Amino acid sequence: MPKSSNKTPKPSQNGQSPSIESILAEKRLFKPSKKFSEQARISSMAQYEKMYRASIKDPEKFFAKQAEELAWFKKWRKVVEWKAPFAKWFIGGKINAAYNCLDRHLSTPRKNKAAIIWEGENFEQRVLTYAQLHREVSRAANVLKSLGVKTGDRVAIYMGMTPELAIAVLACARIGATHSVIFGGFSAEAIRDRVNDAEAKLIITSDGAYRRGTIVDLKRNVDLALRTEAMMIDGKSQPYGGCPTIEKVLVVKRTGQDIDMFPGRDIWWHEAIKDASHDCPAAELDSEHPLYILYTSGTTGKPKGIVHTTAGYLLGTYLTTKYVFDIRDEDVYWCTADVGWVTGHSYILYGPLSNGATVVMYEGAPTYPAPDRFWDIIERHGVTVFYTAPTAIRAFIRAGNEHPNKHDMSSLRLLGSVGEPINPEAWMWYHTVIGKGKCPIVDTWWQTETGAIMISPIPGAIPTKPGSATLPFFGVEPEVVRKDGTPCKPNEGGYLVIKKPWPSMLRGIYKDPERFEKQYFSEYPGIYFTGDGARRDKNGYFWIMGRVDDVINVSGHRLGTMEVESALVGHEAVAEAAVVGRPDEIKGSALVAFVTLKQGWPPDETLKERLRGHVGSMIGPIAKPDDIRFTDALPKTRSGKIMRRLLRELASTGAVAGDTTTLEDFSVLEKLRAGEEE
Length: 678
Ligand code: 7RM
What we know:
The protein is an alpha/beta fold.
């Protein structure tokens, strides 16, 4: 069991007891309709089982056959080499991910098909065909080259959801520069940490981004991250190192707002690209060439740079898009994630584009200018496959059925869910109100680390149960195990592990092989530990129960409690902080921070707001605690470890029912309880 964990998975999430409706929904079985199955790529359980068995029996043979569907410059010598925890796939092969997403479609009827249908928050529309996207990516790739970016260099990308974001990512892939996309909601501090860890040479950003009717000052955040002079932080002058590896900043004009441009460092994208040639052959890269780094929260204060390489990742996203979304040429596919998260990497860009699909990309907020924006987009663009997160679904339930009911969404044929467990009520609402009872729902379980979907229904084949991600994808061997590694019995809660390597698995934590091994392969030697709790029912279906480590899933975004805690203790008023999750109807979990103050600081509302603001500026708005509780002391064990379980119980239910015998000072608990009643 993970040492950081003191949470034993229980069949209900976050200590919330499931409602009666939820229990009834869980017991229902939804078979794919005959109409859907007949047209689907995999149209029966028997066909799924046959393919799955083949993929497990001889993964090398299975994946070698599948990999032939990608375009290779040179064929691999060996399919896989596994020296736990290090995997290599398609050794000796030469390939390019951007070539597979673009060039190879140009000799087919897809050439003039829409690759990206983009909609701005203010309703602007841009459509890029595969030929046009190829041209723009090639020009941008030439700009990168002219700025001195070479194969193997790292490029940070900090942008809003505009077509240039997709172009920038694919331009990096084209020349073999490893991209590191930083979500546009992150702060200057977060940018600096990530850029410095990756030692990026270039940042691509934009002046600003439209979000919920306002503007996010992206370039200003980049300027703050890069500045080197001392800065006043909370009234104190603090030395500031900036980002010494950054040579240039490439700036896309989106909002036209006033920004500072530093001569010699900052370059306008539109000026640089004006005369760039659209002729830029895709680099012939090794299968294991690092395609990207994406930072994700873990159980320490420092985010981990998850590394994905080229061929295996591409194959994983290609295959899952093909079979889980059952993608076909007529589809209008829309994944509502931001490219700043792994879901956007895999299921806005690499997966759908390598399949030659038409992708909708939306810039703005789900409820802007009105709560029906998503349904309006589905209707106007004729979206057929729609992929979103449970937190969004729950917010839409609350907003009311009148919003979807205003729109004709009969184009939809398949719905997807990702990011956190979907509660059966939300599943049923999605099924009836959005899918009108005719669209299968694929509840896709996977992680930044897994690169691609791991457990999910195959929509024409696997009957679904609301709340279950059902069965593993081809080549994936998950198991639910006890602390000691022995398999759990049906319905017994345990830890979700994956027993064999798979093509799109992470290849490491950037520059930190020890942490990689310790984090993922040490609890169960040689076996990948997911950090999630799960159970498997008597039909073999997986029910994911959420994180069992100190990672909290807030609105589908992963946050490390340690990360938020270290931001809090970085504030001059804070002596100590402990952050836990509390069940939240919309967000899944909300953040509650227990904070002890240094002498002389008044425990008032003003300070709470300042602390929230401080966390916002250290990490980003998503990490601001929903609730801050000042306390004289935190409950600790005799060895000085904060008893998070008690805090979790306090934050969730206001009471502590569990075992408190290891608590060092019982009076702390009394005080915390008293504080709760105030
Ligand atoms: C794709 C993504 C990963 C964590 C993972 C789980 C949770 C994601 C589901 C889910 C239950 C799902 N990557 N999670 N999908 N839990 N059912 N279908 O979200 O790296 O940001 O997060 O998200 O806890 O470990 S992520």
